[in-house]
Amino acid sequence: MTPSIQRTGSIHDTKKWKEFEVIDFKPKQFGDYDIDAKIEYCGVCGSDMHTLTGGWGDITPPLIVGHETAGTAVTVGPKVKFIKVGDRVGVVGSCLECNRYKSDNENYCPSMIDTYNSKFPNGDIAHGGYSTAIRAHEQFVFPIPDGLDLDNVAPMFCAGITMFSPLKRHGAGPGKTVGIVGVGAKALGSDKVVVFSHSTNKKNTADVANVPLPLFLKTLRLHGKFLIVGVPDNKFEFHTMELMGNGGSIAATHIGSKKEILEMLDLAKKKGVKSIIELYSSGCSTSASGSFFYW
């Protein structure tokens, strides 16, 4: 395959989301600021499953998921300044014009282009990382520091930044105690990281109907914050009285900005942060949850 013709596993119907089809496709039109990256690793994210199964609504077929990608730049546009051929990179988009983009909040851009299941302004369909390559604007291609392994870095482009951004934006650090439902990390220097895992059955834990939200809200210290970083298929409901006793608040964050991603990668290098991963060789892997393609 060449960057102009890419190969992937895709679906056309969320009701048949386990029935992947191998296809060759043309990526979006190559622009002056675009980069083609050969994908060497791509993580499996909950967002992929929500989209594949139709939990987040309709899809634009062929659907090619995957947005935790890491690989090597193989082609760069004539106006690209910060990436060169051969660089190790991780690869999304926004309008590049609005105030949110200009204030390092492009991840909240109202015209943001998701990595997959969305369209570029010219009508081309955005395709994800379960593919041989990916094409993106240089603003959304991130150089990976030496010393970080590609397989460990790939999940950081969603799972990692989804945790790093809210901790950074809401002041995690010395003197603070952080409670994280399911996972925890101390690289930002918080005094304590308390990990909540109320069930050994992770399938049930992932269902918002089984999340004891009132209990979690009661653990907040005075004027503490409960930060939401996930988007379940179903509604997330609570009673305002559950926040009154400690003057708590609920907030949400959406992945992170380019500035934050670069900071996260630098922190991972300095602190020796490693992702907990399980690697699959290239080809097709079938499990109880369905079939996935790894290239």
Automatic annotation (TrEMBL):
It comes from Pterulicium gracile. CDD domains: CAD1. This is Chaperonin 10-like protein. Transmembrane segments: none annotated. The lineage of its organism: Eukaryota, Fungi, Dikarya, Basidiomycota, Agaricomycotina. It comes from the Eukaryota. Residues 34-146 form the Alcohol dehydrogenase-like N-terminal domain. One of its GO terms (molecular function) is oxidoreductase activity, acting on the CH-OH group of donors, NAD or NADP as acceptor. Keywords: Metal-binding, Oxidoreductase, Zinc. The keyword Oxidoreductase applies. The keyword Zinc applies.
